[in-house]
Design a protein that fits this description.
Helix content of chain A: 55-70%
Keywords (chains A, B, C, D): DNA-binding, Transcription, Transcription regulation
Radius of gyration of chain A: 20 Å
Number of strands of chain A: 0
Number of domains of chain A: 2
InterPro entries (chains A, B, C, D): Homeodomain-like_sf, HTH-type_TetR-like_transc_reg, HTH_TetR, Tet_transcr_reg_TetR-rel_C_sf, TetR_C
Distance between the termini of chain A: 46 Å
Organism (chains A, B, C, D): Yinghuangia aomiensis
Oligomer: homotetramer
Structural class of chain A: mainly alpha
Protein name (chains A, B, C, D): TetR/AcrR family transcriptional regulator
CATH topology of the largest domain in chain A: Tetracycline Repressor, domain 2
Strand content of chain A: under 5%
Largest interface: A-B, 43 and 43 residues
Pfam families (chains A, B, C, D): TetR_C_11, TetR_N
Chain lengths: 216, 216, 216, 216
DNA sequence: AGATAACCGAGACGGTACGTCCCGTCTTACC
DNA sequence: GGTAAGACGGGACGTACCGTCTCGGTTATCT
């Protein structure tokens, strides 16, 4: 969570300081009101769903959450980081699907999971906005893309490797190509066009799995 | 081009007024300076490439183009329409690739054409911004999506149908699924991640073509 | 009225440009909403009376007047100038009393006039605030002091001179000393202590007039 | 000195607890560092002289005095009280002039004393600011006005009474009117206009003394 | 001697207000 | 009627300071 201008509260004195270099604030100071974080993030989600990314501003969020702008600036330094944390509460917001030994079924479930996440109104509004704000901001780019897909992509690579080992997938298959085809299609249908369907998920998974099927 | 707030020039006196109700301006008045359109659209492309969608505004465009803001507002009623016309000069900005009888090669060429278009700096900056501005604006949504892909998608359907007839593609293949997988992957790699490569194009076309190959 | 950041409207084309170098705006531009000036100045007076000078800010005035802060900044560049114009609508807010030939009566009337002006709640709140804001701001000092007393002081000098000529006042009387004694006493009683009375006006005028009475 | 938010030090164990309900702190605890009071008040005077009342804040005082803001808040509950104590260290900051038997001379000395006090840069900066902060704060108003003039005013009444007894001043003279004329004129010239002079003191005292001279 | 309690410094909190930039609009003068 | 010039009123920005609160460490008084 490198998106906070200053360190987060993290005031737990019982956390073991030896095994993990917990970035705790050096000392005193009034602790943050923990309710405010929730109010702000909730306001962000509501505004995204109702008004879209463009009309969301620190000002409108503050009004909606019943706090003042500096209170938000203390926690998030840009609209993109604020939206990212509100919509995709890092990390692990995309739960990794288990390897069941059936590659086709696993792909279908992975696609369905992504569809569910991207179909949320706040996600539909947030994703293009976030992508648009990445221009010439490498740190933000890393944060957003990492949060969205890096873990899932790496997990998918291991799924493919296992499927190759089982003979379900041919050895020269490029997991990244498959992953981008799946995710890109989901983004296009769910976020941009807004006409995603279960049939589409089936068809997509079918084509792609067939495209990498191992030769007997 | 339904994106002009007031009537476009359309002063062609040779157009037959009978067969088509050409919306011509009522009469007289100073005609628009045709050079100004080009200056504005050029400024838009330059600003997109240099500063990104977020920092582009009517104000910055006006300054860059040496024009006043009202002059731009007279021609385009929103930033999205202005950017859309500057980056994807409708229609036919995406030339349809011919059907050579080799489905795999045609797919590869179609993907390459899209990659070329999306790789332009102004397109990379514009696309997520445009998608983000579509929230709750159905007219704009239709305009943008139509301009971007509808003609290409329909053309692709005919390519697939021909390939099915030739036995290259199996009969139950869903052209739209394939199209979205291709376009989504290109968008993801080219616009969002920015690490598109020729190898990826090859791999992508390979997987997808294999996924719909006709059974012998 | 040198207290406006940019030139005031002054768009009257009939004003003779020869006899007076009217500072008119060079040219076009949307004219100011004339109602807004009144709304702002009224809000200032109300806030002064209710909350005092210290709690009055551009922000509170804007809220009360139903306008935004930049609208006020366009018209007045500092709180002191805004308050000054609201409470003492320059110039001539202090009407000069006529010379009736009875010096004692004229003094009494001049004092009463000042008492009436300083007794307004907005004036009571504004005066010490204005004085306090004059620290190291010579231009503002000149504006405020001029607006408040210069004309009146000069008029009073002529009253004294006339009274000297009539023998009512002795020749070596210093009009400025008398003026400051009168005005200072009124300020003290009306603004600071807030226990002004008619008897005090009588007593004050009596002592001072007696103090400069001509010897027979 | 009712201006301390919590109990003042008042730790003098010799003060008789019977005859006066000295508000002593209930019990132990670390005593206040007596040097800090001086550092704060000195910083206030310096800041007043250099920057004026408006720019003085608990923050700037704390920085200047090398102290933290809460340390000041523990001692004074408002800027006005802090400034008042720094500039007019109550009580008796205005030493009463003795009755020499020469009313005119005593008046001149009283005026000169006031001029000397009000001419201090910190006093010139403080006075209008203090007056401005009295709006709707009766306790503060009493404190400030009492500290500034009540004792002097009462002493002046006794001077006038003695002068009446001696025949120097006529019997119906209103000491308060005279006092306000003197003090108001001094305030106006010294604090507001800043052009006080010895000649003005002479002239002022002369006019006023003449104004109440006893008839032979 | 230990417990208690207030102090001070440090530092962050949530809120008010600041002064500025930009938005989209409107008006005038001119062409 | 289009254009340049230019100001309007409003939305939002990012920051400075306000008065308060919490902490850790200190220093006295009271049991």
């Amino acid at each position: 969570m490198p998106n906070r201008p200053s360190a987060p509260p993290a005031r737990d004195p019982a956390s073991s300081p030896a095994e993990e270099p917990v970035r705790r604030r050096p000392m005193g100071g009034r602790p943050r009101d923990p309710q405010i974080d929730g109010a702000i993030l909730g306001a962000v989600r509501a505004l995204l769903a109702e008004e879209g990314y463009a009309k969301l501003s620190f000002e409108t969020v503050a009004r909606r959450a019943g706090v003042t702008r500096p209170t938000i600036y203390r926690r998030w330094s840009s609209k993109a980081q604020l939206v990212h944390e509100a919509v995709f509460p890092t990390p692990g917001h995309a739960p990794l699907i288990p390897d069941t030994g059936d590659f086709a079924a696993d792909v279908r479930r992975m696609v369905a999971t992504t569809v569910a996440s991207y179909s949320r109104p706040e996600a539909r509004a947030a994703l293009p906005g976030l992508f648009g704000d990445l221009h010439d901001r490498p740190d933000l780019r890393a944060t957003v893309i990492d949060g969205l897909e890096t873990r899932v992509r790496e997990h998918f690579r291991s799924l493919v490797a296992a499927a190759v080992a089982r003979g379900e997938v041919r050895a020269d298959a490029d997991a990244d190509v498959v992953f981008d085809a799946l995710m890109g299609a989901v983004f296009n249908r769910t976020v941009v066009r807004g006409d995603m369907s279960e049939a589409f998920v089936e068809g997509l998974a079918g084509v792609v799995v067939e495209g990498v099927r191992g030769r007997e």
